[in-house]
Structure formats: structure tokens, C-alpha cells
Amino acid sequence: MKKINWRYALGExxxxxxxxxxxxxxxxxxxxxxxxxxRSAYLQNLKNDIQTDQKTLNDNLETxxxxxxxxxxxxQHLNTVSEKKMSVISKxxxxxxxxxxxxxxxxxxxxxxxGDLTLFEDLSVKSAIQKYxxxxxxxxLKAYERQEIIHKEYLGSYYIYHAxxxxxxxxxxxxxxxxxLKRIVQSLDGSYQIQIQATKKGIQQCDSIMAILGKQAK
Length: 218
Known about the structure:
- This protein is mainly α.
- It has helices at 6-77, 89-94, 106-114, 123-162, 178-216.
- It has one domain (38-216).
- It has 5 helices and no strands.
- 21% of the residues are buried.
């Protein structure tokens, strides 16, 4: 019977174990590098999306402030015999436009659907991202919804039943039932105020999450 060289066998076994350990470590390192690249890409895309949101909110803040000023000027002349009534016609048309906010959430949706939100191991970062997209944006969108309802249910109907734009050809005020129009404009004024407050807060929230994401990128 051939004698087993235990020292040789043990050496071979150690070599195999070391080889497997090294291969596993290299594979783990490779996966870690891939995760890091994906995480960095997500971070950059999130920052781009939030910067776009913030720009839209800043633009909206300027428009909403202008619209609110217009609404307040319009109500001063409606349902009166003011000689300046004709001067507010263009402002009435202007505030008839919706001020919209459509969040850029493609990256976040991808993170959720793919399960890649787990790439962010820091719980505070993960919570900040989820709060922004689930709670903060929801609050802003609810504030904007009020103006949309007024436009759809009241202003649109008013234009159909109480406006005669043919009168403008003879330099006459085209809006009938000015008392009703005044109430609608006053309601819009209130909605603008709610939107302005939500928009300002949204801009601050963008700054806050950008600061958090900026630290992660370092």
C-alpha cells in the first residue's frame, strides 16, 4: 500500500483554498466596482433630475408672482365702472394659462422598479431620496392641483357661457357677469398664494437633498 504524503496533500489543499479565496475576493471586488459605478450614475442622474425640478420651480415662482399681481389688479376693476377696465383684458387672458409642474422622476422610478435603491446603504440618504419623491413632490403637486381644478371647472365654463369676444371688435368689454368672473379670479389669487408657498418650500427641499447627494458623490 502506497504511503500518503500528508504534507504534500495538505499543501495542495491549502493552495486550492487560497485560490478559491482569491477568486472569490476578486469577484467580490469586481461586483463592488460595478455597484459603485451604477451608484455614481444614479447619483448624477438624480442630481440632474432635481436640478431640472428646481429650475422649473424657480421659473414657476416668477410666473406665479406675476399672475397673482395680475389677479389682484383685475379684481380692482371688475364689477365696477372703472375707466381702466379695458386695460385688464390682456391680464385676464394671461392668467388663463395653467402654471404646471411635472417632476423629473424617471431615475427614481428606475431605482424603485429595479430594486437598485439598495445600492444606497446609508439609511439617511435613502430616506431623503424617498421623502423627496414620495412626500415633498406630492405636497407640491397637490398645491398645483387647486389651480387646475379652478381652470377646468370654473374658468373654462365661464368662457363658454359668459364671454362674447366679438365685442372686442367694437372695443367693448367682452366679459359678462363680471361678479362671477371676479369670484373666479379671487379664487385663482388664493390658489396662487398656495402654489407660491409650496413652490418656495420645494426649492428649499431641492437645495437640501442636493446637499445630501453632493456629499455622497465625494
